[in-house]
């Protein structure tokens, strides 16, 4: 069972970008930079620090250039990356001194349309010149592939499609592809059916996993990925963020159950239930929980879990929200 597990794993901390982008409370650029500096002090070596997207669409990540200007670039052992949607975003990243960017697509046509207003092919057409120019500028490019197991609109996604798109991203010039179970519905069997076809890039550290905990399966799926040798795991301190489409799906299902059970007759109960669904819907797997798993397996990360726990409590106080990490209770 443990024969193919890696001796060490790199954690890609996505809290300052993927985590904050769906939070109701917006942190200032100075607070976000402070957040990132605190995470840097935990021993993390790759932190997703921002996103150069339209601030009207994602106000939580507005002025990412100011965040980057407040980070100590002398930390040569730490990667501060940013999501870049197009050539305009790339130019902003270049001007901010960002040396690693991420581009994004999905394995579901409908999800891509609703999330980035493009088909899968159009998303490739959009980021291909970004990758080309990034290479000229000596900027590394990481790829995100969402909905690798299920889509909130189309249902189950074909593993063959995921595998094919992963290879396309690698061939397009991504040094690594992060496979995302965006709505958190994947099972270990589904995850391994994809990863077993990617043995060589996994061995080369070119495949990362990015699992959401919507159905409480993230840690189980990470364990399944480790069994096949995956060496890179995305996670978010305190379980910040997640997919709004997944939260909406959970609320819809819960609402249907409420109606079937005639619970909606009680307005006070319904109001309380709705509040919990909005604020407590599980999203990104918590970095604290991933570290707890890895430490228990004897896998080295170089990250101080106690310090990560402290940062998680700090940012949750700033955001006025509960800490979603299960291993800090």
Task: Show the helix and strand layout.
Elements: E1 10-13, H1 15-19, H2 29-40, E2 46-51, H3 64-69, E3 79-83, H4 87-95, E4 100-106, H5 109-116, H6 120-136, E5 140-146, E6 150-151, E7 155-156, H7 159-172, E8 176-181, H8 188-195, H9 199-203, E9 207-211, H10 218-227, E10 232-235, H11 244-260, H12 267-280, H13 287-297, H14 305-319
Write a short abstract of this structure.
The chain is α/β, with parallel strands linked by helices. It has 14 helices and ten strands. Mean pLDDT is 90; it is low at 259-280.
Describe the structure.
The structure is a single chain. The protein is built from 14 helices and ten strands. It is α/β, with parallel strands linked by helices and 329 residues long. The protein has two domains: 10-242 and 283-319, TIM Barrel, CATH 3.20.20; 244-282. The strands form two sheets. An eight-stranded parallel barrel has the order 1-2-3-4-5-8-9-10, surrounded by six helices. It is globular and about 45 Å long. GO terms for molecular function: hydroxymethylglutaryl-CoA lyase activity; metal ion binding. It comes from Marinibactrum halimedae.
How is the main sheet built?
Answer: 8 strands, parallel, barrel
Helix content: 40-55%
Spatial order of the strands forming the largest sheet? 1-2-3-4-5-8-9-10
Q: What letter string, H or E per element, gives the SSE order?
A: EHHEHEHEHHEEEHEHHEHEHHHH
Number of domains: 2
Number of helices: 14
CATH topology of the largest domain: TIM Barrel
Give the number of DSSP strands.
10
Alpha-beta content class = alpha/beta
